[in-house]
């Protein structure tokens, strides 16, 4: 069991700033997903927490203890990587046992611990295989077993499902939270897959260009993304974006998209005239109303795209705005080329400042906790 604190940490390689003044407090037993695009600094962050490199500035504490200068083996941190990093000349058993060999543990105790974790991860039948004789899924589980076997107080998982097939990834996404809870470890889980981050993280820390752009629960980040870039990283199909300007009105302000006008939720009257980017998620646009109703968009179905178990429609307005909707999959009357009218629930409309890309919260209606 452990807490982890990063306090204004900066990591440089030469002149390059790879982690730029980042702060994060992880509670005991909490899983925080570190999510971000390739090159954001996720692996550098984990390696630094594990003690394989040191920050140039800031504090790094585990259980309130300063870890700067403390050797990796004295940090009681377990780590599993995306490329499995198994020792090729050792069997799966010996790979899993390796963290225990460093301690004064008897062979019987080692065997007992390895067998228990192997049973849990369903790899007990391949323990005498060398890594080259394991499937990717078995390698991944072996690496995970090695990270878990010494019951580390802090577990660092670096995109452990990246190199496994979609079916196993789906299974592990369901299994892992239970497994991690059972071990009671505090976990940092790096991923480039937003679904994995949402399924596994109690909270998600979105890392972009070496900075945490937003830290929050999956729901907070999905429904109230701090920036357009964050909104675009979460969701499939991607969030619909329209350039517009807030117009005053009573009782509530509105935004124009082409000829249509969409009513905004309360709290935006004070920013009339401001250029904004309007964001609406595809599942928040539904077919409804009739043409000309206030708060509706008239469009035509341009394409039908199957996506997993859903049907997504690409719609285009008369003036050429394209957007997606994933609602009403079963509507037979809305085939390609058909005219339609869609409306958005005002509460689901997001506004971003066009200059900065940051979300504009409705005045007085929510706390603005974005970083
Ligand atoms: N030892 C190093 N020396 C110099 N630059 C480095 C070093 N290690 C990493 N970097 C740079 O730091 C940046 C962040 O790398 P990092 O591996 O942490 O990205 P990442 O977010 O884990 O990406 P991915 O998801 O692709 O693994 C990259 O620009 C990388 O080139």
Automatic annotation (TrEMBL):
GO terms for cellular component: ATP-binding cassette (ABC) transporter complex, substrate-binding subunit-containing. It comes from the Bacteria. It is found in: Cell inner membrane. Residues 4-234 form the ABC transporter domain. SMART domains: AAA. Gene3D superfamilies: 2.40.50.100, Nucleic acid-binding proteins, P-loop containing nucleotide triphosphate hydrolases. It is a peripheral membrane protein. Its main location: membrane. This is Putative ATP-binding protein, ABC-type maltose transporter.
């Amino acid at each position: 069991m452990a807490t982890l604190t990063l306090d204004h940490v900066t990591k440089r390689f030469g002149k390059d700033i790879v982690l730029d003044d980042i702060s994060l407090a992880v509670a005991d037993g909490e899983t925080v997903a570190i999510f971000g695009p390739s090159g954001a600094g996720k692996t550098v962050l984990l390696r630094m927490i594990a003690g394989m490199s040191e920050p140039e500035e800031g504090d790094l504490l585990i259980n309130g203890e300063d870890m700067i200068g403390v050797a990796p083996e004295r940090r009681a941190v377990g780590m599993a990587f995306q490329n499995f990093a198994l020792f090729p000349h050792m069997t799966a058993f010996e790979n899993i046992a390796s963290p225990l060999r460093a301690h004064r543990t008897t062979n019987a105790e080692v065997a007992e611990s390895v067998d228990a974790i192997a049973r849990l991860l369903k790899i007990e039948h391949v323990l005498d295989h060398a890594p080259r004789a394991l499937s990717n899924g078995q390698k991944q589980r072996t690496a995970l077993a090695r990270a878990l076997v010494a019951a580390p107080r802090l577990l660092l998982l670096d995109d452990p499902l990246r190199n496994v097939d979609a079916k196993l990834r789906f299974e592990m996404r369901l299994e892992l939270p239970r497994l991690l809870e059972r071990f009671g470890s505090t976990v940092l889980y790096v991923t480039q897959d937003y679904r994995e981050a949402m399924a596994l993280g109690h909270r998600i820390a979105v890392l972009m260009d070496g900075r945490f752009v937003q830290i929050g629960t999956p729901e907070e980040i999905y429904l109230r993304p701090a920036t357009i870039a964050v909104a675009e990283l979460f969701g499939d199909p991607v969030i619909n974006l329209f350039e517009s300007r807030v117009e005053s009105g009573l009782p509530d302000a509105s935004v124009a998209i082409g000829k249509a006008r969409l009513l905004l939720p309360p709290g935006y009257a004070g920013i009339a005239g401001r250029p904004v980017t309007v964001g609406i998620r595809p599942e928040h646009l539904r077919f409804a109303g009739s043409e000309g109703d206030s708060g509706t968009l008239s469009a035509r179905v341009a394409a039908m795209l199957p996506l997993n178990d859903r049907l997504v429609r690409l719609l285009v307005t008369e003036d050429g705005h394209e957007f997606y909707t994933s609602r009403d999959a079963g509507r037979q009357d809305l085939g390609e080329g058909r005219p339609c009218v869609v409306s958005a629930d005002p509460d689901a409309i997001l506004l971003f400042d066009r200059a900065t890309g940051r979300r504009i919260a409705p005045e007085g209606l929510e706390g603005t906790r974005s970083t």
